[in-house]
From TrEMBL, chains A, B:
Family: Belongs to the MoeA family.
SUPFAM superfamilies with a match to the protein in the record: MoeA C-terminal domain-like, MoeA N-terminal region -like, Molybdenum cofactor biosynthesis proteins
Domain MoaB/Mog span(s) in chain numbering: 187-325
Catalytic activity: adenylyl-molybdopterin + molybdate = Mo-molybdopterin + AMP + H(+)
Phylogenetic lineage: Bacteria, Bacillati, Actinomycetota, Actinomycetes, Pseudonocardiales
EC number(s) recorded for this UniProt protein: 2.10.1.1
Species: Actinophytocola xanthii
Entry's Gene Ontology cellular component terms: cytosol
Cited CDD domains: MoeA
Name assigned to this protein: Molybdopterin molybdenumtransferase
GO molecular function annotation: metal ion binding; molybdopterin molybdotransferase activity
The protein's annotated pathway: Cofactor biosynthesis; molybdopterin biosynthesis
Keywords: Magnesium, Metal-binding, Molybdenum, Molybdenum cofactor biosynthesis, Transferase
Biological processes annotated in GO: Mo-molybdopterin cofactor biosynthetic process
Role of this protein: Catalyzes the insertion of molybdate into adenylated molybdopterin with the concomitant release of AMP.
Length: 406, 406
């Protein structure tokens, strides 16, 4: 069954909005040191307030603020130095009216004090007496016991990949393990009689090494997923269906890079139709039109064009968001991008998303053309720009947003 | 020795340009599947041309282009169908004048042919005869044997972290292992009598859990480095020097987050001065002024402020580029960023780089203020903007570039 005539093409926006599996990966607990970029399954609450005690934010003297009111260079307040607080220890002395206690940055505010005067606005002209030359308001130089985080407040939300600073806040709160979604397991199947493993040293005439699987594995890893190499399937009736039935039980997402010929593509559509429901066959994107999306009993499947460049472009647009979504992340982290002026006119068809590979030099985005069969374009490009679906092209000089590869 | 009075503050730009260790990590060979974001030590040349054979880029018929000249819908060229080329196999038939051979996309161009007519511009009205309704130029529908990559051409350059598509091109060329720089080993030391491990359940008064080390480990990992936790050192004379002597032989970079009090900072400077040469003490950056950079017998050392937020900001500005550089990458991959309008006026001092944490909502960057001692600012922020060194501030409404966290 070819299937091609039964399914309408969709736009990329329709696919992103409509092809959203309900499936999410299981929840697992990982130690903080392994939690970078993992997606919390639930908001993580603070077990206790932070910093947990009234804390000085400056080096200086803990005082009763009222004792400094009206102090100036010409008419300082004179306070009795009653002692000092050590870092990491409970204060051994309280502040009484007319007195002060030396405190380093980060130390506990002693009882009786409600502010800390910075050392810069003080002088110890007589032993045991501190001159204060500037008033401090109540609360000045101090953070409250729950000013950073209140007990029970959300330290990090669910669904947003953990960033380096998040790990710091979790550590501060004593959270040393986090419940996160497992990495989405992405089975990667290549098809085509001409495709051989990258380790093949001598190619027979017409053979090509599998470029797409290695590059897809990189994109999956970048999206927080776990690539599961699932080999190369020849263009034989039944072979792809058999491989699909093998990988589906263990996969959260299946990616098939189809053979590049019409026959091979039809073979793919037939095999997929035998194990699942085709959601669309054909995407309004260039390159990448012969893309297939299907639901295989709850496991989404992306059928990619055989051309490696097209396959990677499409996977970036519709596959990468799926890898994030399956692991509980609705909104993938933003890609790197830069503004540039377009170096030449670009034609496009209305209703189709065009992805154009570009170099960026001194603020000018220069499209890379040539046969789309060339893989080297993707390594020479600094990134890509998109010509949106409604546009019929972009004029040279237009300001464009270039998504940068990294 | 305090050291503070002997060293001038530097700007961040001076530090980036002048504090550049010669040291590079060793070269190791990693398989392609583990090479993502690793930094090639040498340019990787193509062992052979790609695709390696003259290849059809379309489904159609291999022809001698001259046989199609003048063909039109009204007056087609009629060619004898001589056979078909199978995918991944050598052609078994050549094209002679007046003849054609069916070829799928990606197949080898048969001998005698110099172009491929797309199937869309043909018809097989009589068995064994193909009507061509549009002329094709020589080379049309074909990529040359070395058109993607010539033998010996550079597949990927040295010094640029490998991206997903690079892995595809390397795989296509049969390169299954790459010589890359080892990950930079970054020893992370925390100091301070008040600092305890994140796993500490019950805090004594004045104690804080070590937030900085976990967050720094995340930043190091993001920069392709290998964080090496090196524990917490108390503010005791000699303790930090001893720990530094332990970690230096195994480290490519040492990071010390200093105690936050003046005394603790002086202790750090003294210990560092005893094992290396201080390059600067004080950076013209806010937050993060009390930063120290030193050369410890060829191993760079970054002494960070005790305040976790300041420490992370400074490490992002001067530490992250060092982690990349040590592994052979001069120009780190660009961060994610977005343009936004500033939501309110920002004051700054000329000559100082200000890093301002912001949220971004609907194109408006809203600064997050509050005591810099608050760690939660970094998890609430979407990113940061910089007020450049010459500026004395930015007006509300100014268009700013916000570097986004990810």
């Amino acid at each position: 069954m070819s299937g091609r005539e039964f399914f309408t093409a969709r736009t990329v926006a329709e696919a992103r909005a409509g092809f959203r599996p309900r499936r999410r990966t299981a929840v697992e607990h990982v130690p903080l040191a392994a939690a970078l970029h993992r997606v919390p399954a639930e908001p993580v609450p603070a077990p206790a307030p932070l910093p947990g005690f009234e804390r000085s934010t400056v080096d200086g003297f803990a005082v009763r603020a009222a004792d400094t009111f009206g102090a100036s260079e010409g008419l300082p307040s004179y306070l009795d130095l009653l002692g000092a607080v050590r870092m990491g220890a409970a204060p051994e002395v309280a502040v009484r009216p007319g007195g002060c206690v030396a405190v380093p940055t980060g130390a506990v505010l002693p009882e009786g004090a409600d502010a800390v005067v910075m050392v810069e606005y003080t002088a110890e002209t007589l032993p045991g007496t501190v001159e204060v030359t500037r008033p401090v308001a109540p609360g000045g130089g101090v953070v409250g016991a729950d000013e950073d985080v209140a007990a029970g407040a959300v330290l990090v939300p669910a669904g947003r990949p953990l960033r380096a600073p998040d790990l710091g806040l979790l550590a501060a709160a004593g959270v040393t393990a986090v419940a996160v979604h497992a990495r989405a397991r992405v089975a990667i199947i290549s098809t085509g009689d001409e495709v051989v493993p990258p380790s093949t040293v001598d190619l027979a005439p017409g053979q090509v090494r599998d470029a797409t699987a290695s590059a897809l594995a990189g994109l999956v890893t970048d999206a927080g997923g776990e690539p599961v190499p699932a080999g190369i399937v020849a263009d034989e009736p039944g072979a792809l269906k058999e491989r699909l039935l093998e990988v589906l039980p263990e996969a959260d997402l299946v990616v098939v890079s189809a053979g590049s010929s019409v026959g091979a593509r039809d073979e793919t559509a037939g095999a997929v139709a035998a194990v699942g429901d085709i959601w669309c066959h054909g995407l309004a994107i260039k390159p990448g039109k012969p893309t297939l999306l299907a639901d295989c009993g709850g496991v989404p499947l992306v059928g990619l064009p055989g051309n490696p460049l097209s396959a990677l472009v499409v996977f970036g647009q519709v596959g990468v968001p799926l890898v994030w979504l399956l692991a509980g992340c609705d909104t993938p982290p933003p890609p790197s991008s830069t503004r540039a002026r377009l170096g030449r006119d670009l034609a496009s068809a209305a209703g189709r998303l065009d992805i154009v590979q570009v170099t960026v030099r001194e603020g000018v985005a220069e499209p890379l053309f040539g046969p789309s069969a060339l893989l080297s374009v993707l390594t020479r490009a600094d990134g890509y720009l998109t010509v949106p679906e409604p546009a019929t092209g972009l004029d040279a000089g237009t300001e464009v947003e270039v998504v940068l590869y990294r």
